[in-house]
Every structure is written in structure tokens, then in C-alpha cells.
Amino acid sequence: MPGISFDRAVDYYDATRGYPPGVAERLRDAIIAALELSRSAQILEAGVGTGRIAIPFIEAGYFYAGVDLSRRMMGQLRQKLDGRNQRVHLICGDVMHLPVVSSTFHAVVMVHVLHLVDDWRQVLNEAHRALRPGGALLLADDAHSDCDGAEYTPRTQVQRAWSAILDELNVPSDQRRDSAPHGLDERFQDHLQALGATVERTTLITYRQQPQTVRQVARRYQERMYSSCWILPDHIHAEATRRLQHWIDEQCPDPDTPRDAPARIDAMIARWT
Ligand SMILES: C[S@@+](CC[C@H](N)C(=O)[O-])C[C@H]1O[C@@H](n2cnc3c(N)ncnc32)[C@H](O)[C@@H]1O
């Protein structure tokens, strides 16, 4: 497998990763402004999924191509569009070998994909190949950390607890996807610069997450809703689940109070002349 197909996540992806109302539209507008995209721009999203990022662009009439390993995720995207739009081109394929003609797109967008693929350098090379001269690649990442310096959010608390449990269980790095370069890793920037790009980092938008509790977030790890849990051997996942429950019952002071949190969407933008 060249990456991790999200076929198994299709039934809960939007419920667990979706943005609060209005955020995806603000994100689209921020991307358009950052990349100075005209109405006739042709955009490619590598790892398009169910269209969390794509749909506002498509609804605004942009030409949007999406590539994904998962037919089921893209099927969900198509269902949401309900045949209303013809300027969408969805291709089942591997982002390490983008099934597109070279020098076609004004912009390539990638959100939460590079940590899933076998060779992220090859994916960046492919994005560069797909771009026209003067085009730009935008990598975006949800920064769930506590932006305002407040105490940890439920999401961060659970992430830390889970990671500590995997450490205790001596889970090797090849069984925990969290060891792959994530988000806007420095190594992405170095590689893009080596490809001749000028790279800039920026915050696209800030918003408030939907309130959630520690117990709700923990359930997503316990029910294997995150890709980092999929490659854990069953017996390790079962033991980590038990220990996470123990942490909630014995150590977590307030597991049932919903808390919202500030969030940001950051971007790394690579431009070529
Ligand atoms: C976390 S989802 C992100 C989807 C979308 N970009 C978003 O932000 O909602 C990652 C997507 O990448 C796809 N994917 C993973 N490896 C891939 C590969 N090698 N080629 C194409 N798609 C891949 C998965 O099937 C999944 O739909």
C-alpha cells in the first residue's frame, strides 16, 4: 500500500474531523487570498477525502481536481455535491504518482496527507510536477494546541496521555504513525527549498473548536477512529485502551466537562517562479 486508505473511516470522518459551521468557507477564502487565485484557477487537492477542504471551493465554482486512494471517501464527497457541479474531477489514485498531466495546476493543496504516505518526498516532487510555472503548493495543518497558553484542551490531554501509554508499552516507531513527519514539519520546508521553491509560513484562520470532553476524545482512540491507531497490533491497542480508561478514571480531574478551545489553521506555502 502506498499510503493509508481512509475507506474504514468514511462513516465517521466528517463527524470527527469536520469544522464548525462557516470555518471551511473562511478557510477557502484565506487560501484564495494567500495564493491570489483567480476565478479561473485550476486547483488540485492531493488526498481529497470527503471534501472537507474541497467543497467550499467547488460550491464557489472553482475547477477542482481531487486524488485519493479511497473510493469510499470520494464517494461521500460526490454524494454531498449531489450532481450539482461539473467542474470537479475526482480520480482514484496514489499521490506518490499523481495521475495528472505535468504543469497543469495553478495550485496544489494538501491537508493531513503527508504523514500517511510511504514517501512524502516523492509526493512533494509530484505536487511540483503538477504545478504550472508560477504555481504554488499549500500544505495546511490544524493547530489544535492551546494557542492562547491556557491549560490543555481535552484533545491535547488525551493525545499526551495516549502517547505516554504507547511509550510505556515500548511500541516501536513503525507501529505508531505519530513518528512520521506531521503537519508543517521543517523537513517539508527543506525539501521544497531544495526543489527551488520560496517557502513562507502563515496562519490562515483562527476559530473556536466545538466543545468536547476528555471522555469523548478518548473514545475516538479507544474505538480506533484515528489512523495512528489502525496499525497498532490488536493486543497493544487493547492494553493501551485499558490504560487510557484507567487514566480517565483515576487521574483525569474533569473528564466530562465539555470545553471548547482556540484553534488555528496554519499553512506552508511553496512558490515557484
Ligand atoms: C486525513 S484524510 C484528509 C482528507 C482531506 N484532505 C481533509 O483534510 O479532510 C487523508 C486522505 O488521504 C488519503 N490517502 C492516504 N494515502 C494516500 C495516497 N498514497 N494516495 C492518495 N490518497 C491517500 C486517505 O484515503 C484519506 O482520504
- Return the domain count: 2
| CATH uppermost class of the largest domain | Alpha Beta
Using only C-alpha atoms, the radius of gyration works out to 19 Å
Q: Largest beta sheet: what is the strand line-up?
A: 3-2-1-4-5-7-6
What proportion of the residues is helical, as a percent range?
25-40%
Name the quaternary structure: single chain
CATH superfamily of the largest domain: Vaccinia Virus protein VP39
**Terminus-to-terminus distance:** 34 Å
The stretches of 5 or more residues where confidence is low (pLDDT under 50) are: none
Structural class: alpha/beta
Share of residues in strands: 15-25%
Distinct helical segment count? 10
Ligands, ions, cofactors: S-adenosylmethionine
Largest beta-sheet characterization: 7 strands, mixed
CATH topology of the largest domain: Rossmann fold
- What string gives the helices and strands in order? HHEHEHEEHEHHEHHHE
Mean pLDDT, nearest integer? 93
For the record, the CATH architecture of the largest domain stands as: 3-Layer(aba) Sandwich
Protein described:
By secondary structure, the protein is an alpha/beta fold. The chain folds into two domains: 1-143 and 181-209 and 262-273, 3-Layer(aba) Sandwich (Rossmann fold), CATH 3.40.50.150; 148-179 and 213-257, Helicase, Ruva Protein, domain 3 (Orthogonal Bundle), CATH 1.10.8.900. Helices cover 37% and strands 21% of the residues. It has helices at 13-17, 23-35, 54-59, 71-81, 120-130, 154-168, 186-194, 214-222, 227-230, 234-250, and strands spanning 42-46, 63-68, 88-92, 105-111, 131-143, 198-208, 262-271. It has a seven-stranded mixed beta sheet. β2, α4 and β3 (88-92) form a beta-alpha-beta unit. α6 (154-168) crosses α8 (214-222) and α8 (214-222) packs antiparallel against α10 (234-250). The protein starts with 12 loop residues before the first helix and ends with a strand. The model has no long low-confidence stretch (mean pLDDT 93). The structure holds S-adenosylmethionine. The site of S-adenosylmethionine (SAM) has 24 residues, from β2. Residues 2-6, 17, 47-49, 52-53, 67-70, 73, 94-96, 111-113, 116-117 line the site of S-adenosylmethionine.
